[in-house]
Here is the input.
Amino acid sequence: MDQASRSVITQEVESALEWLKAKSTKANREGMARYAIPSDHALGVAMRDIKALGTKLGHNQELAEALWETGVYEARMLTSFVGDPERLTAARMDLWCRQFDSWAICDAMSFNLFDRSPHAWSRVTKWSGSNKEFVKRTAFALLWSLSVHDKGAGNDPFLQGLALIERAAEDDRHFVKKAVNMALRAVGKRNRELNAAAIELANKLANSAAAPARWVGKDAIQELTSPSVNRRLRPK
Here is the structure.
Protein backbone atom coordinates (compact mmCIF):
# COMPACT_ATOMS: atom_id res chain seq x y z
CA MET A 1 0.00 0.00 0.00
CA ASP A 2 1.45 3.38 -0.97
CA GLN A 3 1.64 6.42 1.31
CA ALA A 4 -1.47 8.06 -0.15
CA SER A 5 -3.54 4.91 0.37
CA ARG A 6 -2.28 4.54 3.94
CA SER A 7 -3.26 8.13 4.63
CA VAL A 8 -6.79 7.50 3.36
CA ILE A 9 -7.13 4.37 5.51
CA THR A 10 -5.88 6.27 8.58
CA GLN A 11 -8.50 8.95 8.00
CA GLU A 12 -11.23 6.35 7.57
CA VAL A 13 -10.24 4.64 10.82
CA GLU A 14 -10.29 7.95 12.69
CA SER A 15 -13.69 8.79 11.19
CA ALA A 16 -15.09 5.37 12.15
CA LEU A 17 -13.82 5.72 15.71
CA GLU A 18 -15.37 9.16 16.02
CA TRP A 19 -18.69 7.81 14.73
CA LEU A 20 -18.56 4.93 17.22
CA LYS A 21 -17.70 7.25 20.11
CA ALA A 22 -20.72 9.39 19.23
CA LYS A 23 -22.95 6.30 19.47
CA SER A 24 -21.44 5.04 22.72
CA THR A 25 -23.13 5.15 26.11
CA LYS A 26 -21.93 4.42 29.62
CA ALA A 27 -24.89 2.09 30.11
CA ASN A 28 -23.90 -0.01 27.10
CA ARG A 29 -20.33 -0.25 28.32
CA GLU A 30 -21.29 -1.20 31.85
CA GLY A 31 -23.82 -3.71 30.55
CA MET A 32 -21.14 -5.74 28.77
CA ALA A 33 -20.16 -7.36 32.05
CA ARG A 34 -23.57 -9.06 32.24
CA TYR A 35 -22.67 -10.95 29.07
CA ALA A 36 -19.08 -11.80 30.11
CA ILE A 37 -17.60 -9.41 27.55
CA PRO A 38 -14.45 -7.53 28.64
CA SER A 39 -14.96 -3.78 28.50
CA ASP A 40 -11.39 -2.60 29.14
CA HIS A 41 -10.98 -1.52 25.52
CA ALA A 42 -14.64 -0.88 24.74
CA LEU A 43 -16.59 2.29 24.04
CA GLY A 44 -20.08 0.97 24.72
CA VAL A 45 -21.82 0.84 21.32
CA ALA A 46 -24.88 -1.27 20.49
CA MET A 47 -24.36 -4.04 17.94
CA ARG A 48 -27.09 -2.64 15.69
CA ASP A 49 -25.10 0.59 15.36
CA ILE A 50 -21.86 -1.24 14.61
CA LYS A 51 -23.65 -3.25 11.92
CA ALA A 52 -25.17 -0.09 10.44
CA LEU A 53 -21.73 1.47 10.10
CA GLY A 54 -20.36 -1.73 8.60
CA THR A 55 -23.11 -1.73 5.99
CA LYS A 56 -22.34 1.89 5.16
CA LEU A 57 -18.60 1.27 4.80
CA GLY A 58 -18.86 -1.93 2.76
CA HIS A 59 -16.06 -4.46 2.25
CA ASN A 60 -12.56 -3.02 2.49
CA GLN A 61 -9.87 -5.45 3.64
CA GLU A 62 -7.20 -2.79 4.25
CA LEU A 63 -9.63 -0.82 6.40
CA ALA A 64 -10.65 -3.98 8.25
CA GLU A 65 -7.04 -4.74 9.14
CA ALA A 66 -6.44 -1.18 10.31
CA LEU A 67 -9.60 -1.21 12.43
CA TRP A 68 -8.47 -4.43 14.05
CA GLU A 69 -5.09 -2.96 14.93
CA THR A 70 -6.74 -0.23 17.03
CA GLY A 71 -7.57 -2.84 19.67
CA VAL A 72 -10.91 -1.11 20.34
CA TYR A 73 -13.66 -3.68 20.91
CA GLU A 74 -16.21 -2.00 18.65
CA ALA A 75 -13.64 -1.41 15.92
CA ARG A 76 -12.82 -5.11 15.99
CA MET A 77 -16.49 -5.99 15.82
CA LEU A 78 -16.76 -3.61 12.87
CA THR A 79 -13.96 -5.58 11.22
CA SER A 80 -16.35 -8.53 10.96
CA PHE A 81 -18.60 -6.49 8.65
CA VAL A 82 -15.89 -4.63 6.73
CA GLY A 83 -13.48 -7.50 6.05
CA ASP A 84 -13.49 -8.92 2.52
CA PRO A 85 -13.91 -12.72 2.68
CA GLU A 86 -12.38 -13.17 -0.78
CA ARG A 87 -9.22 -11.30 0.22
CA LEU A 88 -8.99 -12.67 3.73
CA THR A 89 -6.04 -15.07 3.97
CA ALA A 90 -5.84 -18.13 6.18
CA ALA A 91 -2.84 -16.56 7.92
CA ARG A 92 -4.84 -13.44 8.72
CA MET A 93 -7.69 -15.55 10.09
CA ASP A 94 -5.24 -17.43 12.31
CA LEU A 95 -3.67 -14.19 13.53
CA TRP A 96 -6.99 -12.59 14.45
CA CYS A 97 -8.33 -15.77 16.02
CA ARG A 98 -5.32 -16.00 18.35
CA GLN A 99 -6.20 -12.51 19.61
CA PHE A 100 -9.88 -13.19 20.37
CA ASP A 101 -10.70 -12.46 24.01
CA SER A 102 -14.46 -13.04 24.28
CA TRP A 103 -17.20 -15.28 22.97
CA ALA A 104 -18.78 -12.23 21.32
CA ILE A 105 -15.87 -11.53 18.99
CA CYS A 106 -15.54 -15.26 18.20
CA ASP A 107 -19.16 -15.42 17.12
CA ALA A 108 -19.28 -12.10 15.28
CA MET A 109 -16.21 -12.90 13.19
CA SER A 110 -17.51 -16.40 12.48
CA PHE A 111 -21.04 -15.39 11.47
CA ASN A 112 -20.25 -12.13 9.65
CA LEU A 113 -16.94 -12.84 7.91
CA PHE A 114 -15.09 -16.12 8.42
CA ASP A 115 -17.91 -18.34 7.17
CA ARG A 116 -17.81 -16.57 3.78
CA SER A 117 -14.09 -17.30 3.36
CA PRO A 118 -12.85 -20.15 1.14
CA HIS A 119 -10.61 -21.09 4.09
CA ALA A 120 -13.51 -21.55 6.51
CA TRP A 121 -13.68 -25.34 6.57
CA SER A 122 -9.93 -25.79 6.95
CA ARG A 123 -10.00 -23.40 9.93
CA VAL A 124 -12.75 -25.41 11.62
CA THR A 125 -10.51 -28.48 11.51
CA LYS A 126 -7.35 -26.64 12.55
CA TRP A 127 -8.82 -24.59 15.39
CA SER A 128 -10.84 -27.47 16.84
CA GLY A 129 -7.62 -29.00 18.14
CA SER A 130 -6.39 -25.85 19.87
CA ASN A 131 -5.80 -25.67 23.61
CA LYS A 132 -6.73 -21.97 23.64
CA GLU A 133 -10.28 -21.43 24.82
CA PHE A 134 -11.38 -18.80 22.34
CA VAL A 135 -9.59 -20.38 19.37
CA LYS A 136 -11.42 -23.63 20.08
CA ARG A 137 -14.64 -21.71 20.66
CA THR A 138 -14.25 -20.16 17.21
CA ALA A 139 -13.86 -23.56 15.54
CA PHE A 140 -17.31 -24.60 16.70
CA ALA A 141 -18.91 -21.18 16.33
CA LEU A 142 -17.71 -21.33 12.72
CA LEU A 143 -19.10 -24.85 12.23
CA TRP A 144 -22.39 -23.61 13.69
CA SER A 145 -22.38 -20.66 11.30
CA LEU A 146 -21.51 -22.79 8.26
CA SER A 147 -24.43 -25.06 9.15
CA VAL A 148 -26.70 -22.06 8.74
CA HIS A 149 -25.04 -20.15 5.90
CA ASP A 150 -23.20 -22.60 3.62
CA LYS A 151 -26.15 -23.62 1.48
CA GLY A 152 -24.00 -25.30 -1.17
CA ALA A 153 -22.11 -27.74 1.04
CA GLY A 154 -23.00 -31.43 1.01
CA ASN A 155 -23.29 -33.63 4.06
CA ASP A 156 -19.67 -34.84 4.19
CA PRO A 157 -18.06 -31.78 5.79
CA PHE A 158 -20.80 -31.68 8.41
CA LEU A 159 -20.37 -35.39 9.17
CA GLN A 160 -16.67 -34.66 9.63
CA GLY A 161 -17.75 -31.78 11.86
CA LEU A 162 -19.69 -34.22 14.04
CA ALA A 163 -16.47 -36.18 14.55
CA LEU A 164 -14.78 -32.97 15.72
CA ILE A 165 -17.70 -32.31 18.06
CA GLU A 166 -17.34 -35.76 19.58
CA ARG A 167 -13.63 -35.19 20.22
CA ALA A 168 -14.27 -31.80 21.84
CA ALA A 169 -17.35 -32.68 23.87
CA GLU A 170 -15.43 -33.44 27.06
CA ASP A 171 -13.95 -29.92 27.22
CA ASP A 172 -15.48 -28.42 30.37
CA ARG A 173 -14.66 -24.77 29.61
CA HIS A 174 -17.94 -22.87 29.47
CA PHE A 175 -17.48 -21.02 26.18
CA VAL A 176 -16.13 -24.09 24.39
CA LYS A 177 -18.87 -26.36 25.73
CA LYS A 178 -21.60 -23.94 24.67
CA ALA A 179 -20.22 -23.64 21.12
CA VAL A 180 -19.84 -27.41 20.78
CA ASN A 181 -23.47 -27.79 21.83
CA MET A 182 -24.70 -25.12 19.42
CA ALA A 183 -22.72 -26.64 16.56
CA LEU A 184 -24.22 -30.07 17.23
CA ARG A 185 -27.73 -28.64 17.29
CA ALA A 186 -27.15 -26.59 14.14
CA VAL A 187 -25.74 -29.51 12.13
CA GLY A 188 -28.68 -31.65 13.24
CA LYS A 189 -31.19 -29.12 11.95
CA ARG A 190 -29.71 -28.94 8.45
CA ASN A 191 -31.51 -31.95 6.92
CA ARG A 192 -32.95 -35.31 7.91
CA GLU A 193 -29.77 -37.33 7.30
CA LEU A 194 -27.69 -35.00 9.41
CA ASN A 195 -30.45 -34.89 12.00
CA ALA A 196 -30.25 -38.66 12.39
CA ALA A 197 -26.45 -38.56 12.63
CA ALA A 198 -26.54 -35.73 15.15
CA ILE A 199 -29.15 -37.50 17.31
CA GLU A 200 -27.03 -40.65 17.26
CA LEU A 201 -24.01 -38.67 18.47
CA ALA A 202 -26.08 -36.75 21.03
CA ASN A 203 -27.34 -40.02 22.52
CA LYS A 204 -23.79 -41.34 22.69
CA LEU A 205 -22.61 -38.19 24.45
CA ALA A 206 -25.57 -38.24 26.83
CA ASN A 207 -24.32 -41.60 28.12
CA SER A 208 -20.71 -40.49 28.44
CA ALA A 209 -18.78 -40.78 31.68
CA ALA A 210 -17.68 -37.15 31.24
CA ALA A 211 -20.09 -34.54 32.64
CA PRO A 212 -19.49 -31.91 29.90
CA ALA A 213 -20.22 -34.45 27.17
CA ARG A 214 -23.39 -35.60 28.96
CA TRP A 215 -24.63 -32.02 29.13
CA VAL A 216 -23.85 -31.39 25.44
CA GLY A 217 -25.67 -34.56 24.41
CA LYS A 218 -28.72 -34.25 26.64
CA ASP A 219 -29.28 -30.60 25.82
CA ALA A 220 -28.95 -31.22 22.07
CA ILE A 221 -31.35 -34.18 22.10
CA GLN A 222 -34.16 -32.00 23.45
CA GLU A 223 -34.09 -29.75 20.40
CA LEU A 224 -33.09 -32.28 17.74
CA THR A 225 -36.03 -34.57 18.58
CA SER A 226 -38.53 -31.77 19.15
CA PRO A 227 -41.77 -31.49 17.14
CA SER A 228 -40.65 -28.15 15.70
CA VAL A 229 -37.46 -29.62 14.24
CA ASN A 230 -39.35 -32.67 12.94
CA ARG A 231 -41.82 -30.37 11.18
CA ARG A 232 -39.03 -28.27 9.75
CA LEU A 233 -37.25 -31.32 8.29
CA ARG A 234 -40.39 -33.04 7.01
CA PRO A 235 -40.22 -33.64 3.23
CA LYS A 236 -42.17 -31.00 1.32
